[in-house]
Amino acid sequence: MEIQDLIKCTIMRGGTSKAVFFNRSDLPADEKFRDMQILRIFGAPDLREIDGLGGADPLTSKVAIIGPSTRDDCDVDYLFGQVNMIKPMIDWKSNCGNISSAVGPYAIDEGFIDAVEPITKVRIHQVNTNKVIVADIPVRDNKAEIEGDYRIAGVPGTGAKIVLDWADSAGAMTGKLLPTGNQTDILHVENEGNIEISIVDAALPLVFVRAKDLGLNGNETPQKINDNGALLSCIEKIRSLAAEKIGLCRDRNNATNEVPYAPFFAICAPPMSYRNWMSNEKITGQEVDIVVKLLFMQQMHKTYPVSGAICTTAAAMIPGTIPNQYAKIDVINKGVLRIGHPAGVITSKGKLVINNGHYELEQATVDRTARCLMKGYAFIPKIVSSGNTIHREI
Predict the structure, then answer these.
(1) Confidence label for 388 from pLDDT (cuts 50, 70 and 90)
(2) What's the CATH fold of domain 185-365?
(3) Tens of pLDDT along 85-103?
(4) Class of 4-161+371-385 per CATH?
(5) What is the pTM of this model?
């Protein structure tokens, strides 16, 4: 007899992130009970997540719950959660684009959809945003292929190329590609003055700000940003005002608690040369169309999220937005945006059309790789499985 309870799970790398994947049927139907179990599996809250499977980093403290689709036009449901390492909570309000790239391989390998060689198309119902992501997954011997020559910045080696189509992602959280109806807006930020921003919502909402308006060059490392408390405080003020402006929270003063995950915050700069913070390799201004540093949960992303790339590409295709002002002038005609980020370059394809005076997202694709890392069982104390809470010292 086991002295702990076991819950079946899989650890997947998707793009530059990792998540613990669960079959929806293996978790409690009661959401509070479910979240209690997931937190205990991750060892959260705890900055090291030492007593669980969490990776002690926002990029690896992620959860995905997969089940048969509740929509007739999709193959699987995919619910994403960002597991908080500081507070006993899971943010279910948004999505992770990198983890989205692992959903198709997981669905194929777990039998949610029949494998078709050489490419299996998986239509994913992204439950958080109620949008559809279409993934083209290479398949071999009835399993998701992992071997290939495609390389993405921030991941060692190469893998099989997965193509994600996000054309249905406009207005993911607000219902509008331009939530305020404007390409730019002015926010009056307490003790900081007036700051010009752009807010765009595709895959998830982003707040775009010029690096120079924050006293930055645009080539700063993650550590330099994360160690600047005054800067992070200013950024959170701007983000909170934007969250209130587009209706994601009722009160800007409570945005950090109410919507800690979205909108993301993007610091924009023109194409320039800089160093990859991981390898010290030089990235030249000729290799990128724009340089962007992205923050979420008051930490700078060490690479660049896929959902952020989709939104940044959409924004760059809209004349007048801050990303459009900084991007090279031919990006709209090419329909391709090369985003310089701390660990390299991510490329996204996008096309917008105007319909009845409004911009609509017609194309939005990003290529990724993904791989199953482990399948097995997570152990949790029986007291958690019984629904009782445990006070844990942080």
Answers:
(1) low
(2) Diaminopimelate Epimerase; Chain A, domain 1 (3.10.310)
(3) 999 999 998 899 999 999 9
(4) alpha beta
(5) 0.87
